[in-house]
Backbone:
């Protein structure tokens, strides 16, 4: 199963979540998920757990049902939501509790297993960096513990040629052994956008 976002440039808040199932090596026709997973607000940065039963995305909706939207679509207007797959289909999304929805902003969440949550964002621990990558373990009460910064790039104003000063778009292989991410690298004439990989030791 593959979760992804299709954008409609004519909509006020483009971005809806779709799923596609793989059968005999071929991906099926994308199916748009129903409300309140998709709403008139923006839905973005989808991720599925390894077993396909937890769907994560961020949205600029002001409430869980998307009855109203934040006028901004930027990172500071996003909340990370989770929907779970059960016998009756996908549950109504709810905000991920605890650290993943704290800080100045938070988006681009990813979790192979609910016990460990990863996302991109910014808070006081990120300092003057534009964005950091965070992780948090699941607590017994169903929320997440305080965040730990595990990737902090150089602040953009202090970046030298060759430095990474923006990171994001984190994802993991299904066995959790490799992490992939995007980063902006300072060059003599501007910046290059690259894909990085880190191996679990």
Residues:
């Amino acid at each position: 199963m593959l979760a992804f976002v299709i954008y409609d440039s004519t909509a006020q808040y483009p971005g809806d979540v779709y799923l596609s199932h793989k059968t005999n090596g071929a991906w099926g026709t994308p199916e748009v998920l129903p409300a309140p997973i998709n709403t008139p607000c923006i839905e973005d940065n989808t991720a599925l757990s390894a077993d396909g039963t937890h769907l994560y995305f961020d949205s600029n909706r002001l409430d869980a049902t998307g009855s109203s939207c934040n006028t901004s679509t930027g990172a500071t207007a996003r909340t990370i939501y989770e929907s779970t797959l059960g016998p009756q289909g996908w549950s109504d999304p709810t905000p991920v509790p605890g650290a993943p929805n704290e800080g100045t902003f938070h988006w681009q969440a990813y979790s192979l297993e609910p016990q460990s949550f990863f996302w991109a964002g910014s808070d006081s621990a990120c300092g003057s960096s534009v964005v950091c990558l965070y992780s948090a373990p699941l607590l017994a009460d169903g929320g997440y513990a305080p965040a730990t910064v595990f990737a902090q790039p150089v602040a953009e104003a202090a970046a030298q040629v060759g430095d990474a000063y923006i990171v994001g778009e984190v994802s993991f292989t299904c066995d959790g052994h490799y992490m992939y991410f995007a980063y902006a690298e300072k060059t003599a004439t501007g910046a290059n956008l690259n894909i990085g990989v880190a191996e679990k030791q």
User: Anything to note?
Assistant: The first strand starts at residue 2 and ends at 6. The chain has no helices and 17 strands.
